[in-house]
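Title: Comparing notes on inverse folding

I've been comparing how different people in this forum approach sequence design from structure. To keep things fair, I'm posting one structure and asking everyone to reply with a full sequence. Here's the target:
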């Protein structure tokens, strides 16, 4: 990672930061512990407690005595996710402590927002200034919050790294690094061995790439219910012979966002010790969808690991092909919970936008656990259906399945239905169609790679695996 998330050590040099809401009669609801001079100063600066409003407080010598930070009214909580992340971005460098937290603000989530706002991607350009640091508030599980941030940092770093430095080999190296940190076993099936070991669709999609395609398989030490995470690792997607236009190709370094998210989630699970109570497996089909003389073609019919034949009607619908072979392998172990994460369809973004990833699940109780955990952990997700009347849309007639049905309707659903065909032995299957990218900066979410669904899954696991 470019840097690890960290809280500042407590000391007598930390500066107080008050979180302030607007008052009922206008102006700010200033904290009672603020001295008269600071209150007068805040009013003279027009500080009203509006969301993201900052008021620095001077001391008697003209130095910095602390700050007031507006968090808006309670009615804005749904709109101002990770608002404290903005404070981490705009406060002067130094160490800060929360002097007062409103009763309806969760200090652990607020602290996580700060750490997420502290993130800087510095691999190619150093940060202009060090970020402000926060002392962990009393009463929170600081190690747990740091573990959540570490998983997010890892996912962001992997997605933000361009394909020149994050091809299949480098993605494998990142997985090996994670495995080494946490004692996981690694097995990689590479290049022609994919055919020998019956992963024909991973091989077909990736064989034209500059780096050999591969399947990365991590198994963590632990006992208990089996959780398998499968992440799409298309390190760059030209669209293949159905080449994307330049505008659509610009962000395709993020097409391995599913792999980045499952690795980020694995990092958090390991740091929190959760892996000790489960059998965690990570599968990542890592490829480049490139153009060369041996690239797979529109009209080709591929035979999958499961034996299902797939007609390729668009080489730009490659993610579901590589995921299908990986899901088939995962399903052979009959895990208690099988989850796929992928930057899979533009249709999901059209339906729900970049900030709200859909997920698909047949079990109402599992779906409710994931939705509720996402709501509670400021990691929103939204359930879409495996709508069975659309199954005929993915059945082309001359093969078992069509990877890119025409008509332009229900693209996210038909992709999810396609993937579900390669499962059936797992007790529960859930698919996330994520975007993995923050298109414009927001509090706690700088423009660039983004984790989605990780905390929702993490906090739903006790309800799902404990059933």
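Reply #1:
Here's my take.
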């Amino acid at each position: 990672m470019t840097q690890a998330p960290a809280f500042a050590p407590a000391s007598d040099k930390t500066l107080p930061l008050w979180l302030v809401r607007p008052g009922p009669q206008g102006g700010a609801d200033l904290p009672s512990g603020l001295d008269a001079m600071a209150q007068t100063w805040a009013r003279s600066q027009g500080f009203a407690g509006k969301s993201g409003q900052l008021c620095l407080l001077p001391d008697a010598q003209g130095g910095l005595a602390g700050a007031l930070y507006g968090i808006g009214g309670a009615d804005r909580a749904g709109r101002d996710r990770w608002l404290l992340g903005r404070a981490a971005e705009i406060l002067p460098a130094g160490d800060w402590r929360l002097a007062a937290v409103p009763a309806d603000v969760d200090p652990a989530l607020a602290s996580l927002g700060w750490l997420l706002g502290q993130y800087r991607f510095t691999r190619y350009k150093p940060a202009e200034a060090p970020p402000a640091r926060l002392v962990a508030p009393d009463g929170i599980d600081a190690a747990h919050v740091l573990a959540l941030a570490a998983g997010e940092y890892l996912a962001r770093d992997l997605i933000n790294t361009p394909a020149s430095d994050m091809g299949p080999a480098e993605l494998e190296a990142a997985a090996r690094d994670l495995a080494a940190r946490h004692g996981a076993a690694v097995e990689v099936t590479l290049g022609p061995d994919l055919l020998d070991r019956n992963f024909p669709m991973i091989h077909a999609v990736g064989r034209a790439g500059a780096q050999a395609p591969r399947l990365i398989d991590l198994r963590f030490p632990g006992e208990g219910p089996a959780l398998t995470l499968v992440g799409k690792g298309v390190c760059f997607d030209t669209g293949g012979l159905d080449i994307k236009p330049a505008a659509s190709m610009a962000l395709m370094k993020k097409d391995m966002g599913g792999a980045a998210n499952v690795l980020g989630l694995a990092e958090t699970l390991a740091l929190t010790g959760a892996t000790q109570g489960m059998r965690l497996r990570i599968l990542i089909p890592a490829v480049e969808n490139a153009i060369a003389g041996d690239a797979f073609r529109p009209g080709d019919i591929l035979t999958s690991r499961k034996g299902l034949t797939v007609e390729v009607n668009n080489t730009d619908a490659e993610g579901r092909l590589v995921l299908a072979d990986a899901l088939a392998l995962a399903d052979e172990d009959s895990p208690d919970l099988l989850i796929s994460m992928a930057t899979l369809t533009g249709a999901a973004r059209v339906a729900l936008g970049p900030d709200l990833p859909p997920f698909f699940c047949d079990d109402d109780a599992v779906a409710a656990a994931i939705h509720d955990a996402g709501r509670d952990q400021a990691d929103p997700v939204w359930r879409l259906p495996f709508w069975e009347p659309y199954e005929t849309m993915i059945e082309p007639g001359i093969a078992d399945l069509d990877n890119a049905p025409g008509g332009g309707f229900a693209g996210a659903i038909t992709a999810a239905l396609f993937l579900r065909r390669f499962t059936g032995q797992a007790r529960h299957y859930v698919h996330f169609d994520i975007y993995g990218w923050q298109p414009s900066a927001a509090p706690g979410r700088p423009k660039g790679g983004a984790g989605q669904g990780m905390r929702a899954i993490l906090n739903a696991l006790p309800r799902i695996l404990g059933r």
